[in-house]
Structure to design on (739 residues):
């Protein structure tokens, strides 16, 4: 028996298998018509006297339900419509929960968002022990809250503290941990998942929900904690006050969904389940119409679209298969790239460094990441050892003859990188792809050393490679499409969000970050306290302040990149006077324990002696936090617009993804181009012109901003401006700039 994506299979033992399998979709999602379908199916099984118990499962190979179909929320224009959608979800989940026959969820693969809410509405849950099985409520990552009863059922099942942790972070829980938390009732191999779920369902026929006695609760430490914190007014106040305090340390109040989740959970505990559902529905509707939700969902749609993008416009171009990757340089970047290639992409790596110590250091780094996964029970010892064997080391070019792609992550020295090109072409195949991990040197310059410049490309990873999600691929005018497509495919296999940009000094990410960091340095030179600058940018939404980031990257590295940028882009990239004094004073940042901040056993905070070195007095309180944030952020946004106008970017989408996932641009603002669309090009342009009058040409607006402010166009939507059409008079031929 079938009901539009749900089928009912009756077994001889009285168990009905209700299987969800949305036709034509790789994963199950809750579509707009799911409520009616669920109601009909559960009416059918409830009224069938042959059915004694129900197992709800998925017909998809490796997923349960991935959540609601987010695209159906795009068209919602009012809080009332959003609230209606949530109440419809409540109706479906209540129907499952109220079924007089036991309903057990058999979960294999992802059960996220609405998918977990379906499972929570069931009377029990059995999960497979597959590493593909993940459970979570990630709605807060989209600026929303769980809207189908999750805010009420999850705390009642596993306790308020772990439930809040899951909902506020959006983290995904593996099956074994879910069992320990009480989120599922059993964990078994996939091969016996259905049979086990059926046994659990049959065992619950006629069974009343177990209620622990007061003595049992006293013997259960977690139950005592839950009683002390969640089940009395004083404990609740402490619990929720602490939760909000910890939340604001991380979000600075920029993410309304998390605050509302706390409020809704609290309402349910204090006023009852139905009151909690009502608060959830109102909250869902309210959040759905916020700019934060719109921006966060735009990032979700952008990354989804990137998964289908080959990086080239010609749809006939296909990536070539990669069987082996060569890695030049076994430092943190090289070893990190080696790890994601073997562990995630499942491709063996040959790792080269100039001496044995370098190779061993790289292999130890890879082993350290693997051991960390083993310690967290993500890998068995045998799996860890097998994985480690996929990375082999060498001090020569032995083993590079059959590499399909060779990535270099050596020092930022043009001559050295060009020598690497010549060496690889000497020992490798004629069609070997040479990819540079440089963060600032033009790929065109590196490719000048190649006999086959069409096979030279940039693959700019971010540190630490195994944690940072972005890969920026840089193409020259000569890079072949098949090379681009192959490297994009490799990046995806490594688990990265991949954007493709045109060659130029700083490419996209380094180029847009540089002026923001430079502006922070100008503020320091004006006497604005360092901690005030960093705090203002944290409040604006960046994960780390620009001065702190300068210390982390290295003041000397920043100075070197700054000179390259100034050489390419002139006066608007000129650093303030005095910054060279930091280099002369051997202040390189965290790496040598001497920078803007104190390190080691010293008192934490700003190193006040830095002001004396710079010859400034940190007393300029007249610059407000708002001006600090706007000055730094506008430098970032304006340079992003220049990259768009010059055609460095293929789309505004790529620019937003690159900024958010590579540079920490606030996700709730959607990226620099969503930010302009939301604030308005005229407003951004007006602020830039005002700052240009006061502070000079470094705030000269990007030509594309002037254009869209005049025409009413936007970066996204039906009236979008096209990239590469607004170079103005100040665009530089970056690949030709001196390095």
């Amino acid at each position: 028996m079938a009901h539009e994506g749900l089928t009912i299979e009756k077994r001889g033992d009285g168990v009905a298998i209700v299987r969800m399998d949305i036709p034509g979709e790789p994963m199950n999602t809750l579509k707009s018509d799911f409520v009616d379908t669920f109601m009909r199916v559960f009416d059918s099984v409830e009224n069938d006297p042959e059915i004694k118990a129900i197992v709800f499962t998925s017909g998809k190979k490796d997923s349960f339900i991935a959540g609601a179909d987010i695209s159906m929320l795009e068209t919602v224009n009012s809080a009332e419509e959003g609230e209606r959608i949530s109440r419809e979800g409540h109706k479906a989940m209540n129907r499952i929960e109220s079924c007089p026959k036991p309903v057990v969820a058999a979960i294999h693969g992802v059960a996220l968002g609405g998918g977990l809410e379906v499972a929570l509405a069931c009377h029990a849950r059995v999960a497979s022990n597959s590493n593909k099985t993940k459970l979570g409520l990630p709605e807060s990552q989209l600026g929303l809250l769980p809207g189908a009863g999750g805010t009420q059922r999850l705390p009642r099942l596993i306790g308020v503290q772990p439930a809040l942790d899951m909902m506020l972070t959006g983290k995904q829980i593996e099956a074994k941990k879910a069992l320990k938390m009480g989120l599922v009732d059993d964990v078994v191999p996939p091969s016996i998942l259905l049979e086990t779920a059926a046994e659990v369902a049959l065992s619950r026929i006629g069974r009343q929900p177990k209620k622990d006695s007061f003595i049992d609760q006293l013997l259960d430490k977690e139950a005592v904690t839950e009683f002390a914190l969640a089940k009395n007014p004083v404990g609740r106040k402490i619990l929720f006050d602490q939760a909000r305090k910890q939340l604001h340390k991380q979000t600075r109040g920029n993410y309304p969904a998390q605050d509302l989740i706390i409020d809704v959970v609290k309402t349910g505990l204090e006023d009852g389940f139905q009151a909690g559902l009502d608060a959830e529905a109102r909250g869902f509707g309210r959040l759905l119409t916020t700019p934060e939700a719109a921006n966060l969902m735009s990032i979700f749609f952008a990354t989804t679209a990137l998964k289908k993008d080959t990086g080239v416009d010609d749809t006939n171009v296909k990536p070539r298969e990669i069987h082996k990757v060569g890695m030049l340089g076994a430092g943190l970047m090289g070893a990190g790239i080696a790890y994601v290639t073997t562990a995630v992409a499942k491709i063996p790596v040959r790792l080269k460094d100039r001496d044995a110590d370098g190779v061993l250091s790289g292999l130890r780094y890879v082993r350290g990441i693997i051991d960390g996964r083993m310690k967290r029970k993500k890998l068995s010892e045998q799996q860890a050892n097998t994985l480690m064997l996929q990375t082999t080391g060498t001090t020569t070019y032995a083993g590079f003859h059959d590499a399909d792609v060779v990535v270099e992550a050596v020092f930022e020295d043009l001559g050295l990188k060009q020598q690497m090109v010549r060496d690889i072409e000497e020992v490798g195949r004629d069609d070997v792809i040479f990819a540079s991990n440089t963060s600032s040197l033009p790929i065109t310059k590196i490719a000048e050393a190649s006999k086959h410049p069409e096979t030279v490309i940039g693959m700019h990873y971010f540190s630490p490679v195994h944690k940072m999600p972005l890969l920026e691929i840089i193409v020259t005018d000569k890079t072949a499409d098949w090379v681009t497509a192959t490297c994009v495919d490799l990046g995806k296999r490594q688990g990265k969000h991949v954007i493709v940009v045109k060659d130029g000094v700083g490419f996209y990410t380094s180029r847009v970050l540089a002026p923001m960091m430079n502006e922070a340095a100008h503020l320091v030179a004006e006497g604005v306290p360092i901690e005030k600058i960093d705090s203002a940018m944290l409040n604006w939404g960046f994960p780390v302040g620009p001065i702190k980031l300068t210390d982390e990257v290295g003041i000397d590295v920043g100075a070197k990149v700054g000179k390259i940028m100034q050489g390419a882009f002139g006066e608007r990239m000129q650093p303030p006077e005095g910054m060279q004094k930091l280099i002369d004073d051997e202040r390189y940042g965290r790496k040598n324990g001497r920078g803007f901040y104190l390190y080691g056993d010293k008192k934490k905070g700003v190193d006040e002696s830095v002001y004396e070195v710079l010859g400034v007095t940190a007393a300029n309180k007249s610059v407000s936090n708002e001006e600090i944030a706007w000055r730094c952020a506008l430098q970032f946004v304006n340079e992003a617009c220049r990259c768009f106008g010059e055609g460095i970017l293929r789309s505004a989408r790529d620019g937003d993804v690159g900024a958010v996932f590579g540079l920490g641009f606030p996700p709730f603002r959607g990226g620099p181009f969503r930010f302009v669309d939301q604030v308005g090009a005229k407003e951004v342009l007006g602020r830039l012109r005002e700052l240009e009058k006061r502070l000079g040409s470094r705030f000269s607006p990007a030509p594309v901003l002037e254009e869209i402010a005049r025409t009413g166009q936007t970066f996204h939507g039906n009236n979008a401006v096209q990239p590469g059409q607004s170079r103005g008079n100040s665009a530089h031929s970056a690949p030709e700039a001196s390095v």
Residues 625-645 form the longest helix (21 residues). The chain has three domains: 2-289, 325-502, 509-711. The longest strand covers residues 15-20. The radius of gyration is 28 Å.
